[in-house]
Amino acid sequence: MSIGRALKVQPGEGRIAAWTVALCFLVMAGQAIGMSGVTGLFLERVGTEALPRAYLLQGGGAFAFMLVLAAMLGRVEQRRAFLVMAGMLAVVVSAERVVLVAGPTWIYWALWLTVAIAVMSTLASRSYGRYDWTSTAIAASAGSSPPVAA
């Protein structure tokens, strides 16, 4: 039995399915590497004594993110909302990288919060709707309609 048949990939969907799997793998691998790096930097530069405050900040940030996401999904099409979230996350991470070179202590707190929000946005994109932003982006670049989850 082929992998495509086991995953119920229809004829003509193989290329989009392969690109979607590859992009999802890269996103998840990047997230895992980023989380490990941020945790290491945070513990090295800020210290373990800051963890209780960091976890409180993380919870508050996740709560605020979910409120913003719920409000945004009520007003904007889901595909657009998740694409905008991915773009905003890329901009924030790039800006944090630039600031990280200067080495202020507050950037490690911002990185910690960004990781929490990145994880929440990934989970939300998988559970909030029928569209996955990776499939949508790949399908749009290929000139076809995105696959719809069952």
Order of helices and strands: HHHHHH
Number of domains: 1
Which word captures the global form?
A: globular
Number of helices: 6
Which value, in Å, is the CA radius of gyration?
18 Å
Query: Could you give the distance between the termini?
Result: 22 Å
**Would you count the extended β strands for me?**
0
Q: Name the helicity range.
A: over 70%
Helix-and-strand structural type: mainly alpha
Largest sheet descriptor: none
Query: Segments where pLDDT lies below 50 for 5+ residues?
Result: none
* Overall pLDDT score: 79
Strand content: under 5%
Give a verbal description of the structure.
The chain has 150 residues and is mainly alpha-helical. The chain has one domain (17-142). It has 6 helices and no strands. The longest helix has 32 residues, at 14-45. The radius of gyration is 18 Å and the shape is globular. The protein starts with a helix and ends in an 8-residue tail after the last helix.
Protein topology:
Layout: H1 3-6, H2 14-45, H3 51-75, H4 78-102, H5 106-127, H6 133-142
Helix pairs in contact: 2-5, 2-6, 3-5, 4-5
Give keywords.
150 residues; mainly alpha; 6 helices; 79% helix; single chain
